[in-house]
Design a protein that fits this description.
By secondary structure, this protein is an alpha/beta fold. Helices cover 62% and strands 8% of the residues.
């Protein structure tokens, strides 16, 4: 008869826990969020034997059962069986053999919860390099739980691990003795709590005393436990300190009897030698800039080909579908609404996969922790921390995956600040807008024979977004009222070779999250934008149609040109066009006309849509659709009703600045909503970025 169990996978950060999870589950994984918090909930299925299967829950890394951060609270509540959605039948505890003393604290606490435990020692190879020898059988006797060595990176130890798990499940094996005598810490209080909550261990009763306010307990039970605390003058802080001291006293004994450590004068490991270079006061930052430049450029270079392929494929599909469907509104909905929306989703996937793949490789090598360490000082001054630098740098490629990477930041306030300012980094979608506007209003001049004025303006736009992100973060930190303390405790892992399989798994995970979560919102808004651009008041739309039907009869030779003009005029009279006219008074002080207003509205789907909208509005002929110079000539020749040019230097600069600061990206708003679990923050983000864009554009237009 087949049996299924839930196994909680726990361990310290950088202990090899995620590697073991990926090895055991492969691609048979699901990624979501724990209820109420934006913390990754990774679960996977794996078969232990012919009659035993399991769901493996990868809990966030934590150093002890005294949580400080949101992700540590998630792991803590699952282990204390206070999460109604996840009740583990046993615990698979991963410990780093090269840092065994530190890992044993968490291990000893898990043992005292009286849950079946199997301890997996990883990084034995690194322990051997450090000259550390571990008596696994002796360690097993001291702890009273099964201990096995495994190397997830080299696919070693899986079969023995499955056998041990099966034996532990069959025997419901729990350590026969506690690691420490918890009763010595608060005997009377623990006894009274065990009367209130039967069948819990002494150590679990102690945690009910310390953290019952954070548990989902009946009000009467909460009151009774609180009464026990008051009656016995229970001091949580003092008790916790005494517990830790007692545990380390026992751990010291275990280390002396089961572990032989290397001579303290041993030769420095390769990691320590590399850190003298990578963490150097000067060269460390030079290397960091080089690594970030290569990361940033690689996302552009590598993603460009699959993105072009996706656009080409959707172009072919769109052409084929439009060719076989009748000329009806629902066919237009399928072609220009649904297919365009799907294209807007899938075209982001290469950037998301490549960015997360490269970041995973950096994490595997151990360099990601060094990036956070080097940048923490600057980031902390503006309310962020060192872990904020990767989402911000990633924002140069695309804000969508960049916002998703911010979930690595434990502190809620710093994570929220990072999410709120990352869209200010100039993403690749802004590039087509910058390119056409710079070519329109900035002269093609060279300084010193090599420095292009247009290139300098482009670089200035990117730098402006970066500086403003830091400024906004500094200001916003005073308004986000989250009092959670920020502890930037960072363990620098050893340098290791990257695992390509792990990178591929992560890439597929992140692509799924984007397509199935953010993609739903993107599709809805795409269809809404199609409707606004395709329909308008019946009288106006019928008048336009009647006008051009007559013109085509009178001049059939120019029907193609008239079709383009009709399309442009229909857009002007659509709901989107009416909206453009409606916002014209608000954007006129920035130097924009109603056509630019329409582009601002339609490019909300994606900033690069600005160029396509301009092409339609200025009725570029079919033969010139891909000829940017023709579009530039049309835009350069555009005039206001009074005969003045539309695209002057002032208007061009104003529009560029607007696109530097404006949100103009529904995909980003969808992802921000998902990551913050609220519409409050994306709405605030949209408002502050729009106001910042308007004021900055008005200032630039006024000056020039």
């Amino acid at each position: 008869m087949s049996q299924h169990i839930n196994i909680a996978l726990v361990g310290n950060p950088n202990s090899g826990k995620s590697s073991l999870f990926n090895l055991l589950t492969g691609l048979n994984q699901k990624v979501g969020n724990f209820p109420g918090v934006t913390v990754d909930k990774k679960t996977g299925q794996f078969r232990i034997s012919e009659t035993l299967t399991s769901t493996l829950i990868d809990l966030p890394g934590t150093y002890s059962l005294y949580p400080k951060r949101a992700d540590e609270w998630v792991a803590y509540k699952v282990l204390l069986q206070q999460d109604k959605d996840i009740v583990p039948d046993m615990v698979l505890l991963v410990a780093d053999a090269s840092n065994l003393k530190r890992n044993l604290l968490f291990c000893s606490q898990i043992i005292d919860l009286k849950i079946p435990v199997v301890m997996v020692l990883t990084m034995m190879d690194l322990a051997h390099q450090k000259g550390t020898q571990i008596d696994i059988n002796g360690l097993e006797r001291e702890l009273g739980v099964p201990v096995i060595a495994a190397n997830p990176r080299k696919n070693k130890g899986v079969a023995p691990l499955k056998k041990i798990i099966e034996q532990t499940v069959a025997a419901q094996f729990i350590s026969p003795r506690p690691f420490i005598d918890t009763n010595e810490l608060a005997e009377q209080s623990i006894a009274e709590v065990k009367e209130l909550v039967p069948k819990i261990s002494d150590y679990k009763a102690l945690h009910f005393l310390i953290n019952h306010e954070h548990f989902s307990l009946p009000p009467a039970l909460q009151h009774d436990i609180e009464s026990v605390e008051v009656k016995n003058n229970f001091n949580p802080t003092k008790t916790q300190a005494e517990e830790i001291m007692s545990r380390y006293s026992r751990i010291k004994h275990i280390m002396q009897t089961t572990v032989v450590e290397a001579d303290p004068l041993r030769k420095a490991l390769l990691t320590e030698k590399l850190d003298t270079v990578f963490l150097h006061r000067k060269w460390g930052y030079v290397i960091l800039l080089g690594v970030l430049f290569l990361l940033f450029q690689s996302v552009f270079w590598i993603a460009q080909y699959p993105m072009d392929g996706i656009e080409w494929a959707f172009g072919k599909i769109t052409g084929f579908v439009s060719g076989i469907l009748p000329d009806t509104w629902w066919a237009d909905l399928i072609v220009n609404g649904a297919l365009a929306g799907l294209s807007g989703i899938f075209v982001f996937i290469p950037q998301i996969m490549i960015l997360f793949g490269l970041i995973t490789l950096l994490e595997d090598t151990g360099y990601m922790a060094r990036i956070s360490f080097l940048t923490d000082k600057l980031m902390r001054k503006v309310g962020l921390n060192g872990k904020s630098v990767m989402p911000m740098i990633s924002g140069f490629a695309c804000a969508v995956p960049a916002v998703m990477t911010a979930r690595n930041i434990e502190n809620r306030k710093e994570r929220l600040l990072t999410i709120m300012v990352t869209p200010l980094m100039s993403c690749s979608a802004r590039l087509p807008v910058y390119t056409i506007l710079i070519s329109l209003v900035i002269p093609s001049e060279l300084y010193f024979g090599v420095l292009s004025l247009q290139g300098l303006v482009m670089m200035g736009l990117y730098l402006l977004g970066t500086v403003m992100a830091l400024v906004v973060s500094y200001v916003m930190k005073f308004f986000i009222n989250i009092k959670e303390k920020s502890f930037f405790i960072l363990e620098l892992p050893v340098y290791r070779s990257p695992r390509w399989k792990n990178a591929v798994t992560t890439m597929i995970e992140k692509a799924k999250i984007f397509v199935f979560d953010a993609g739903k919102v993107i599709m809805v808004i795409s269809l809404l934008l199609w409707a606004l651009s395709s329909f308008g008041p019946p009288q106006k739309m019928d008048a336009v149609k009647a006008k051009y039907d007559l013109l085509k009869k009178q001049d059939p030779a120019n029907e193609a040109i008239l079709d383009k003009q009709q399309q442009s005029e229909q857009l002007e009279n659509s709901f989107a066009g009416i909206a453009g006219k409606a916002i014209e008074p608000a954007i006129r002080p920035l130097g924009f006309d109603w056509k630019i207003g329409i582009a601002l509205i339609t490019s909300f789907a994606a900033r690069e849509v600005f160029v396509g909208t301009m092409a339609t509005l200025y009725s570029v002929g079919e033969d010139a659709d891909n000829n940017s110079s023709t579009l530039r000539q049309k835009m350069a020749a555009a005039v206001m009703p009074d005969g003045s040019k539309v695209y002057t230097l002032a208007t061009g600069l104003s529009l560029m600045i607007f696109y530097v600061f404006a949100m103009q990206c529904m995909s980003t708003l969808a992802v921000v909503k998902r990551e913050t679990r609220s519409w409050k923050w994306p709405i605030i983000q949209l408002i502050y970025m729009t106001c910042l864009a308007w004021l900055s554009s008005w200032l630039v237009y006024s000056i020039f």
